[in-house]
Design brief:
Shape: rod-shaped
Strand order of the largest sheet: 1-2-3-4-5
Structural class: alpha+beta
Radius of gyration: 59 Å
Distance between the termini: 183 Å
């Protein structure tokens, strides 16, 4: 019985060992399979990680571009804001000027009327050089002031221009034709004026000469001693002969 038992035990042990070896082989195979799965999963995970890393790098580049663009836009917006502020200051300044222009117009228009009135009075009291032309100029100024299509600045310019023309009469030497009244008779003459110092008239036949007396507001006939001088004066004013010294009746300043 003891031998049988021993044999049985040996057989049982062999079976047990065989079964254990089979189990171990299965476990090892399973481990290899699991390890392969793990490697496969790890590889896929690495691919995902690489893809995510590349995406993150692309996003980082894009983010930096957005940051740069945002900074540039901020600088540009600040620049535009400064331009807008400067334009607003210019607009405010222009508006103040416009407002002041309206106030100026309210003062300049009455001034121009007074200037025209003064100019008209001056012409009537002055030596009658180109008297018709000067009176016509004053008349045009009055028509101009009544014309709504003419700006205030243009009206003022023409008033000042009329004054400048009057200034020129005081320095101009000229000769022109016109008429004078001699004892109720209208006589055509050549006028000669030496500024406002002297205004003379010479008959077209050069046989008579007159000088204007501004105090008496009349024409006074000159003697023969001045006739040739007046003839020469008219010729010099018309550039017929060169300028020269001549004897003219000049009223002394008081």
């Amino acid at each position: 019985m003891s031998k049988r038992t021993l044999i049985a035990s040996t057989v049982m042990g062999a079976f047990a060992l065989t079964a254990s070896t089979a189990v171990s082989a299965d476990l090892l195979s399973d481990l290899h399979n699991e390890e392969a799965k793990i490697h496969t999963a790890a590889a896929k995970s690495q691919e995902k990680i690489n893809a995510l890393f590349e995406q993150s790098q692309d996003l980082l580049v894009e983010y930096r571009q957005v940051i740069d663009e945002t900074e540039n836009l901020k600088i540009y917006n600040d620049y535009i804001a400064s331009l807008v502020a400067d334009q607003q200051r210019s607009i405010d300044s222009l508006q103040r000027q416009i407002d002041s222009i309206e106030e100026t117009k309210q003062g300049i228009v009455p001034l121009m009327f007074r200037m025209i009135d003064s100019l008209e009075k001056f012409i009537e009291l002055d030596v009658p050089i180109n008297i018709d032309e000067r009176r016509e100029r004053v008349s045009r100024l009055r028509d101009l002031m009544a014309n709504s299509n003419v700006t205030v600045s243009e009206q003022f310019r023409q008033v000042i221009e009329a004054y400048l023309v009057e200034v020129e009469y005081g320095t101009r030497i000229q000769s022109y034709q016109g008429t004078i009244d001699v004892s109720g008779t209208e006589v055509t003459v050549d006028f000669f004026n030496l500024g406002r110092t002297a205004l003379m008239a010479l008959s077209l036949d050069q046989n008579h000469a007159w000088v204007w007396d501004n105090d008496a507001r009349v024409w006074q006939e000159l003697g023969e001693e001045y006739l040739n001088a007046v003839v020469d004066a008219v010729k010099m004013a018309n550039n017929v002969i060169p300028p020269d010294l001549i004897k003219l009746p000049i009223k002394a300043a008081e």
